[in-house]
Amino acid sequence: MSLCLCGKKWMISFTWLRQFKSLSVLHLPESWLGWTLALTSTLAFSLATPLGKTAIGLGITPTTILVLRFGISVMLLVITLGLTAPDKLRVDRKGLLVIGGAGFINGFGVLSFFWSLTRLDASVATMIFSLTPLVVLAVLALGGEKLSYRHLVRLAIGLIGVYLLIGPGGKIDWRGVLLICGSMVGISIEFALIQWFARAYGTRTITLYVMTGMLTTIGIFWAIQGAPWPDTGWQGWLIVGVMGLVTGYFAWWAMFTAMRYIGGSQVILLTPLETLLSVIWSVLFLQERLSVWQWLGGIFILTSAMLAAKRLSRVK
Q1: Model's pTM, two decimal places?
Q2: Residue 115 and residue 6: Cα distance in Å, rounded?
Q3: pLDDT tens digits, residue range 147-183?
Q4: What is the C-alpha separation between 128 and 162, in angstroms, rounded?
Q5: Quick one: CA dihedral 161, 165, 168, 172, positive or negative?
Q6: I need a surface site. Which of 209, 244, 252, 283 has the fewest CB within 10 A?
């Protein structure tokens, strides 16, 4: 889940779903291209959390990481749209307030997630964050989205997984868990605002102004913290550059293009795969270790996330 993590694909899937035909009417080469780009995007997003944890280990603050990551992504996105679709750069006042405001709110969520990495292992943070679809469905229910008893079943499975992950599985920093919860709330509010009030706007326009709103929030916190600048050598700059270019700009572009060919509902179903890949990278490259109880909890959480993502992909 790349955050890109932080909040990324939930807010845009439905716009593409309304704009493009179903998978069954697409030609085979186009569907193969769509799935290839969707998987590539998922792979790119899955690198965000392990790379962020590595950058933090090198002494870069989470806020500085996010300023650089979103700064690079927004700059490249503006350049791309300016060259290919300059009309997408413009938005009316309502769109600016709604979309930019949604991004501004989720800026707090992104900050919460990356600051949680200073207290939690990347694998644990990623698995807890993967319950975001459950929170999104709950927030959408406030706007009239119907929830059945099955949502209670999904919620129960997820909570059992969380208990196994942070209960008998080992000592967990509860402040880190609360930061993850704040992150899930932030992205859910952002998604609901986009779903309720921004349906008339193009996906690329939504993405640009949401990311700009997030960058504004992050930039304010960065300034409050004294605008710290990293001095970690080429390794730190390389990681931040990869995060901005690969897990930011490229991952978004690949996901947009994939949605054109296979639809947003198909792409959203890959979210649990992103979580699994992030955990695998954390275990392989960060030498993080999970107990048997934590692995079992992760299975429960991924099952709950998979069921919630499947339900969310059918939301109209």
Answers
A1: 0.84
A2: 12
A3: 777 888 888 998 898 888 887 655 678 899 999 999 9
A4: 7
A5: negative
A6: 283
